[in-house]
From TrEMBL, chain A:
GO biological process, any: lipoprotein localization to outer membrane
The keyword Transmembrane helix is assigned to this record: yes
Entry keyword Transmembrane helix: yes
PANTHER family for the chain: LIPOPROTEIN-RELEASING SYSTEM TRANSMEMBRANE PROTEIN LOLE (PTHR30489:SF0)
Gene Ontology cellular-component annotations: plasma membrane protein complex
Organism: candidate division WOR-3 bacterium
Domain ABC3 transporter permease C-terminal, first and last residues per copy: 281-410
Homology family: Belongs to the ABC-4 integral membrane protein family. LolC/E subfamily.
Localization: Cell membrane
Chain ranges passing through the membrane: 17-37, 281-301, 322-352, 383-406
Protein name per the record: ABC transporter permease
Topological type in the membrane: Multi-pass membrane protein
Amino acid sequence: MSWFVIKGILRDRSRSLFPLVVVTVGVALAVFLDAYLRGAQDSIFAATARLATGHLRVVPRAQAELGNRYDFRFTLKDIDSLVSSLSQRYPEISWHPRFRFSGVIRSRKTGLPGMPFTGLGVDLNPEGSERKRLRLGQGLIAGGLPESGGAGLGFRLAQQLGVVPGDTVVIVTTRADGELMEIPLAVAGIIRFGVTALDRQLLVMDIGEVQTLLGAGHRATELLGFFQHGFYDDRRAVALARSFNLQPAGGEEQSAPVMQALRDAAGFGSLIELINSATGLVVFIFVLAMAVVLLNAGLLNSLRRYQEIGIRLALGETKLQVYGSLLSEAFFIGIAGSLLGTLLGLGVSWYLQTHGLDISGMMRNASVVMEDVLRARIAGRTFFIGFLPGLAATFAGSALAGLSIFRRSPARLTRELAE
Amino acid sequence: MLNMPDNNLIVETVELVKRYPMGRQELVALKGVSLRFCRGEFSGVIGPSGSGKTTLLNIIGTLDVPSSGSVRVLGETVERLSPAAAARLRSRHIGFVFQTFNLLPVYTAYENVEFPLLLLGMGAQERRRRVMAALEWVGLADRANSRPAQLSGGECQRVAIARAMVKEPALVLADEPTANLDAENSHHILETMQKLNQELGTTFIFSTHDDKVIGYLRRRIRLVDGRVAADETG
Ligand SMILES: Nc1ncnc2c1ncn2[C@@H]1O[C@H](COP(=O)(O)OP(=O)(O)OP(=O)(O)O)[C@@H](O)[C@H]1O
Ligand SMILES: [Mg+2]
């Protein structure tokens, strides 16, 4: 009997083609949207993670309590042993200390008034991952990277100071012991970070040199953790941070390490909830719209097939059997459409995942810190986020439309059929 | 005829009344019809338009229920059957031939004839044998793979007869089966049905006001205004 139904679907295009197209398109959109939003989220988070917070961030308790405001006097002690114990405990994360400091910078040559800067000490070892993560190599406009002394300056900062590589700048900043001091620094290179705020303010140095200059050996203001697989996994990050904070090392001490997931470190909690519920909402709306369209198609279909259904009832098929065969038609169409749609959506998503879409033109004036190349990301959920709803919508549409069968009175059949 | 043994009785109506509500009044389509049909009859209900022929056939065919009175078809009391039981009775024992041929348009002649057997859950081999036999009865074995749109009206009606006959039902109800056919095709299908009646012993009840049909009938029941006005055999 189901072969009979399938033959009917295949031969009567008007019965199958429209619902099939609707399901395919709807499912493909839902699938693509899921991957696209995840990719967009990745790209917002990736930039923030690279430049500011990592996927996970360990900071001194005192700093954690300050929230987004930095106070660079709070540092983590014994950074090397902290890194090795964290690496052991969380092998899925790679850990990198950074040292932030701030102060005023001026040029020795021009004598222009000083301006505020933010200093960032990172591991500039050519074999290390921080260089790549901060895209220092790509961003270098002039000179070299300050791996063996000196500083790299954001290109707008250098412009305003009127300095070029080889010049000397002077920074005024606070040492670890609280003493304010002037430090002369050679300008090793000029860097374009691609984020306006950083280009205007940032000064990059090797973390070892920062520790020496500020008298803060074996210390760092923060320790950033990155998932080895490269993507921010919100649920996992939150769980790791929670488990770490449950066993406080160093008790209530100000410098005791506290772990934060990116969502908390960057204040992205509500953004993540928004994206998650937006995905859910959009998929829900698609499904609803699909179901309504399919319901209408189903209603038209039962009108168009009024006579056929009448004949079948007269020939001794029960209403339940006819209804069942309409549902199995919906099932076949739903399976085919959902499968096609999922494949189509995955295909487009996969393309955008591997090739990416360069949006740097659109992002030039944006204030969101976001990667220049937008990518989609397919996750486990992408495979069924369209499939099941597509099937359900087809089914629901036909199930509702088919109810009209039960209102038919067989007594009228012969008269209707005679018309 | 009156003293037929009961096991030969296939349809019996007792004081059948059918009323249709018409606004505040009501229309009485059948006003107490009592009839008995026996196995192997080739009979017809004849009468002017509106006399209640279709209504009577519908009730006998379990598509409708009487307002009062009683119908027994093949030992079942129709007015007491559930819709599902009525559907089962139709699918097993009653074949219908309609005025318009009413084939399923997306299926071939073969598949249209096969459909009632699928409903009965019959095995593939037995199905194939029966469908081909039925198409041969009506002389359309060579058109098995044609769709209704590719067949003439007469051919469609012959497929419809094959569809009604393929399960070898005890009873075939044919409501004005020749109304849409020309004389030649009318004679052709009537001869076909007459032959099946003789070879398989199937009971036929027609409704008609077509003289060509009336000429073939062995029993004519004249219905006038919802009442049996005459019932003649021979
Ligand atoms: N569903 C209905 N509602 C109201 N009246 C009906 C209904 N069905 C039939 N009738 C009326 O019942 C009467 C008998 O109708 P029926 O169809 O049985 O006549 P018929 O003898 O088959 O006529 P025809 O030769 O035109 O087919 C007619 O007056 C018809 O209008
Ligand atoms: Mg009629």
